[in-house]
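Hi everyone, sorry if this is the wrong subforum. Our group has a chain we'd like a structural model of before ordering constructs, and none of us has done structure prediction before. Sequence below.
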Amino acid sequence: MKYNLLHIAAGMALCLGMLSCTSDEENAPSTSIPDGALPSETFVPNRLADEPYAEEAILVKVEDYDAPFYSLELMGDGHYLLSYEREYYSNSRADRGGKLRNTMLHRASDVRIMTRGAEYTESGKLYGNYEVIGEKVYRLDNGLEVDMGPISESGGVIRYRNDNGTWSTVSASAWDTPADEATRSICRGWDVNIFEFWIYFNGYYIAHGKEVIKDQKCERYFKCLGEDLFDITEDDYFDDQSDVAYHVYFSANGTYVCYFLNGTIETRNWKWEDATRGTLRFYDYDASSGIGYGGYDTVRFAGSQMRIYEDFTDYEDGASARCIVVNTFTAS
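Answer:
Right subforum, don't worry. Here is the predicted structure as tokens:
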């Protein structure tokens, strides 16, 4: 969200005084919160059917430094994420202070490179489809074949086929998909339906925005009370439409993938803050400090639908600006 507290404050007092004189209820100053803008108190996992490759889902990290890749994650929808680097850090973002729209769905400077059906994400990781060609044996769409064999978190070995057709064996460790209900509930592909927000200044409602994504197209609505005084437009709150995500995927091993309307793909990280209460965190890393940055959010399920809520407040010079955000998804 790109709002400036001092910019808003300049016309706020005058605006509230003028709005209080109108009989138009929609434009009257209010401190109320719309129904559905805040999550319910209770977190209830869903009961959706497993994805077709749910039993294959696994994250493998290679321990041999001379191996051609560092990690391989197989996801329940038949996609994989292959990392060639042992560590990846991004210095391109500052702490977002809990803003899901920016942390989770906003695209930065992505670069996509096509290679035999697979795609490089902005982090240099290869993303594509895999097929099962034997018991724990997989073929990736970049041509790599991998035999997992007996492997666990405590260690083991995997084999991969070289370009000349021979097989190499390397030490590795693996993490299976967590079995708790909360993780099974969120970890799958989701179509993005609605992104909606409400803005409050010093407790008073001043702006409302909404994006509806359908068939990979985005329609927008924006209204600012007293817009002639505030000089606020939807450009202060919305990115370019090509930067809008229409599909996301959560993996049980802490990865989520965003698909954007401009055709790019971005991967980031997530983890439960408290799975029993449905609170989670989206984050990146700072290379110099090794600290993860990101926001805390609340997830709720209802049938095949998922909503992720944010509620954060910024303070500046005695003024406050509160932003309430709801992202709505449907299981794909």
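For your construct planning: The longest helix spans residues 5-19. The helical segments are 5-19, 100-105, 181-186, 227-230.
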